[in-house]
Amino acid sequence: MRLTEMEAKALLRRHGIPVPRGLAIPPGAPLPAALPDWPGLVLKAQLLEGGRGKRGLVRRVTAGELDGARAAMEAIAGPVGFLVEEAVAIERELYVALRVDGTAQRMEALVSAEGGMAVEEGAPLLRLPLDPGAPDAAERLYPALRDALPPALAARLAREVVRLARLAVTEDLTLLEINPLAVTPTGLLACDAKLVRDDAALDRQDAAATAGSAALEDAALTPLERRARDRGFAFVEMPGNVAVVSAGAGLGMLLMDLLADHGLRAACFMDNLRGGPAETTEARLEAAFDLAERDGVRAILFYTTLASRPLAERVEALLGFLARRPPPKPVFAGFAAAHAATRGFDAAAARERLRAAGVVLLEEDPLALIRRMAARLEGGAA
After folding, report:
1. Hey, which of 61, 152, 331, 358 has its CA 20 to 30 A from 101?
2. Within 13 Å, how many C-alpha atoms sit on residue 38's CB side?
3. Rounded to the nearest 10 degrees, what angle do helices 281-292 and 223-230 cross at?
C-alpha cells in the first residue's frame, strides 16, 4: 500500500526522523490563523501519484500572503486534503531510497548527491548493499558515500541511511524514498517522502495511522479491480491488448515479459491475495472475459501451473466457464502440470477436451505458446 506524504511523514516522525513542521488541512477547511507566523508556506495536495511538483500540485506561498495561500489551495484539488508545511532553508538536496533487491534477496540503498525533481536526469544512482542489522552498517556505507560527498556529510548520511533502513524493516516497507533529503543549517531533513508498505503485513500495522492512504487506494480501483478484490484475488488493469489469466505474481510477470518480447502487451495482471480462497479460477476468467469485451483487447491468454492439485479440476473449470459464456475473443491456453497433478487425466486428455471446446492453441511451454499466439494474431487468424 502506498502512503500519502502526510501519513508517511507522520510515520517518520514517530521514529525520530526530522521532517518540516506541518499541519493537515481537511478538504474545504480554512487555513489556521497561526500559519502566517511561519517564514514561508508550502502547500501540497495529498495524492498517491508522483510528480506533483511538475503538475503544479505543490505551491510555495510567501509569509503573510494569506489570500495567496487560499487561492493556491483552491487551485490544488486534494481529495483527502492538504499538507501545509513550513518552508525551510535548504543548503543542498540529496536523494535516498531503501528497497529490497529481489535478485540478491537483500536490502539496498539508492543514493544520489543531487536530489529534487531532476534526479532522474542526473548521474546514475549509487547502489549500495545494506544489512541494517549489522553493528557496522554505517561504516560499510561510508567509503562509497565519501567518494560522492564531503567526508562530514558522507558520515552523517551513512548514519541516517541505516536509521531509515531499520525503520523500513520495522514498518514492513518495500520502498522508502526521500527526495529531497535536505541539508539544512540544523541537520538533515526529510522534505518529501514516498513509502510503500507490504500488503501482506497490513494486519500487523496500525490501520488507523494510514486510513487516508487506504481510502485513496480504494478510490483509485476500477470496478473490475474492486470486484476482483472482493472475490479474493488481486487484479490490475493495464493498457494492453491481451487479457491474461494466471495465478501468482511470478507466473504473471513471466507472461507479461514474454508478451512484450513478441510485440504484445498484457491488459491485466493477476495475483493471489493473502487469506483469499483456494480456488478463484472462475472469478479470474470472468474478469478477463469482461476485459476482453473491450475493442482494444485482441485475445485471452490462460496459463496455469500445477504441482499437486489435479489438472482435471482446472481444465473442467475452464470448460465449464466456456460452456456458460462464449469467449468474446480467441482463447489461447497452456498448462504445465507435474506428474502428481496428471493422475487419471493426462496432458493428452486435457488437450483433446479443450480443443473440442474451441480453445485456439494449447502448449505446455509458455514461450512456444506466446510465439504461436503472436504469429496467429499478426496474421489475423482466429
Report:
1. 152
2. 24
3. 170
